[in-house]
Amino acid sequence: MIQGFKEFIMRGNVIDLAVAVVIGAAFTAVVTALVTGIFNPLIAAIFDTSDLAGAMVVSVGSAKLSFGLVLAALINFVLIAAVVYFVFVLPINRMKEAQDRRRRAGVVDEAAPASELELLAEIRDLLAVGTAKETKHTL
């Protein structure tokens, strides 16, 4: 059981996930500060209130619906999603595309990891060779 846990922890994707959670938490603090320090006061000024929580409040009987809080959460989400896309996803996709172009052009970078398609093709070829050898031995 301990060996299985050790193998689980040592997998690359578990470590990557842990790093992503830590970076995400730190990054969320930065975006939250940006939203509460800049965007919320700007939007609150538009609605002439002290903060975004006080903006767009609708009273329904004794209940108060605070649409400003929802707007702040939406702004926070959009900012986080935009930064993740433009800082992480877009550059990594461009790097993969450049690597694919180099491979198609015949420039092989030994330090670059093989793509999943290349690994699957290599496995297929090895299995085909192994199957051909077994067939010869059984005849």
Automatic annotation (TrEMBL):
Subcellular localization(s) per the UniProt record: Cell membrane
Name of the protein described by the UniProt record: Large-conductance mechanosensitive channel
Membrane topology category: Multi-pass membrane protein
Entry's transmembrane regions: 14-47, 67-92
Subunit structure: Homopentamer.
GO CC terms: plasma membrane
Keywords: Cell membrane, Ion channel, Ion transport, Membrane, Transmembrane, Transmembrane helix, Transport
Family under the similarity heading: Belongs to the MscL family.
Principal localisation: membrane
Domain of life: Bacteria
Species of provenance: Glaciibacter psychrotolerans
InterPro entries the record matches: Mechanosensitive_channel_CS (IPR019823), MS_channel (IPR001185), MSC/AndL (IPR037673), MscL_channel (IPR036019)
Protein's job: Channel that opens in response to stretch forces in the membrane lipid bilayer. May participate in the regulation of osmotic pressure changes within the cell.
HAMAP family: MscL
GO molecular function: mechanosensitive monoatomic ion channel activity
